[in-house]
């Protein structure tokens, strides 16, 4: 099973994705503070950027409606490039801020996992609604995911292939780390589903290819595909792929469609949280809605609901206690349920970039 290098596609992806985030204001001593640690490295920038825009739109809406129990919420974004030293410094900075009552929506997956590991040293801050896609054993009871991870997305993808009558597919990993992390479990899951996975050659792609990796890596892979006239190829990618950015990168071969799994409702759905996201985006940002942006919006609104549910003063300890209750909740129709300490069931949907350049779903 091949592994792609990041090559020039990574640099191209970074160039297109390098859109500025709004400046972070100085801390407001009278406000509650919620910190968000993000990964702006080239392969995660497109996911993190949209996620943060969604979160900022949500907090703007919360504060426009009077804040949480009459207190304004200061949304504090701590930017890193994903390095261990930077992540530790960002985490320690959040811990050192007395008014910071929670970590919310840390993104991407590597950063969310690294912050979860650091929480084992001092789980004083609740780690709420991270973009944590990999499985995680939370021994300190301080991490509270709300999004379906890679395992659920893989299961959804394999069921979809089975329903289509597909018995074999190619598979490509965007990095050696992802290959090491997922090759065994993906092969085992595929075997249980009656699906045979095999290596994929760019000049002889099968009808269906499973892809695990980021947007620049996917763009590099798709750009290598060579299809005979009249042939189709469908690439099924996991949630770290941003179809809008993939469209901006351009130069996609004819006959190739990309299907992306996403752990949120479709951005065109009529759920109240989706309508609220689109309204907030239209009010505060000149942006097209994206699944990653919707995820950031949901993460922030879920965190605001948790803060509002706290009994007594809103402090680190009271927020952590509220999180540990793991009460069933709904964020405008997006259900959050737990079984013990695990997310009971996470929503997975799909959107498709068609061969003629349209995004459906």
Round the mean pLDDT to the nearest integer and report it: 87
Distance between the termini: 29 Å
C-alpha geometry: globular
| Percent in helix | 40-55%
Describe the structure.
- The protein is α/β, with parallel strands linked by helices and about 350 residues long.
- It contains eleven helices and 16 strands.
- The strands form four sheets. The chain has a seven-stranded mixed β-sheet with strand order 7-6-8-9-10-15-16, sandwiched between helices.
- α1 packs across α8 and α7 packs across α8.
- It is globular.
- The two termini are about 30 Å apart.
- The N terminus is likely disordered.
Name its key features.
alpha/beta, single chain, 361 residues, 19% strand, 5-stranded parallel beta sheet
What topology does this entry show?
Blueprint: H1 7-17, E1 32-39, H2 45-64, E2 73-80, H3 84-96, E3 100-104, H4 109-119, E4 126-128, E5 143-144, H5 150-163, E6 168-173, H6 176-192, E7 196-198, E8 208-212, H7 215-224, E9 233-237, H8 243-249, E10 256-262, H9 272-284, H10 291-309, H11 316-325, E11 329-331, E12 334-336, E13 338-339, E14 342-343, E15 349-353, E16 359-360
Parallel strand pairs: 1-2, 1-3, 3-4, 4-5, 6-7, 6-8, 8-9, 9-10
Antiparallel strand pairs: 10-15, 11-12, 13-14, 15-16
Briefly say what this structure is.
Helices cover 40% and strands 19% of the residues.
